[in-house]
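Why does residue order matter? Because the sequence determines the fold. Keep that principle in mind as you read this record.
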Amino acid sequence: MSYPEDLRYPPSRYHGDRGEVNAVFRPAYTPPDISSPGGSTHYLATSESTGGEFGLYKAELAPRSAGAKTHFHKTISESFYVLSGELELYNDEKWVTGRAGDFPYVPVGGLHAFKNVTDEPTSMLMLFSPGAPREEYFEQVAEMAQRGGEELKRFRVRHDSYFVEDFD
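Structure:
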């Protein structure tokens, strides 16, 4: 593989000469940040902890979990990395089955959905870039979905989640 001679990195954000001790370690045995009948979510790296660079979550979907209906984001891209099980992913053209090691990337504005249609649990990493404060969304979406109506629509828009069903 050849690389362009004018390969450019982003501007420097650290201006020291020796580096600093600032790495973060999250042990594998850390309990999930959210647990529900549909699965659990671990906040591996939040927008706050990465200075807005990205958000990385580990999501575990229970068997036959509904996941997320077709939606898009105006400010963030979303990527998935399937760790175990099978994950049905929709890209507004068709459903595809993601298996361990598969990596779907959804650019800003890309329609997408996901669900677990199997009798086995599914585990995946979800990467949002740039980082956005998604924690409140994940912590309150189930409650807001039960309320429904305009309150749910406003909640979704506040969290950069535009669901197709909201515009039908």
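Residues 69 and 138 are 14 Å apart (CA to CA).
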